[in-house]
Amino acid sequence: MDCKEQIGKLVFPIFYHVEPLHVREQIRSFGEALADHERNADHEEGRRKIEKRRATLTMVAGITGWWLKNR
């Protein structure tokens, strides 16, 4: 997302076996996996990285992309 914002690169999200809504709102199995990952982070830096990933995934899920359902 940094390249998209800073130098205008294109981003093409591909949602493979996950609904974009679940990524955007971080719910269901996707949200549970992120929460587990966050709980297992063993230090503050790891938790900060996960928070950055959460924010980035929310932004990416708001971009129109391809949803590969059952393919």
UniProtKB/TrEMBL annotation:
Residue ranges annotated for the TIR domain, each copy included: 1-69
GO biological process: signal transduction
A Pfam family reported for this protein in Swiss-Prot or TrEMBL: TIR
Entry superkingdom: Eukaryota
Name of the protein: TIR domain-containing protein
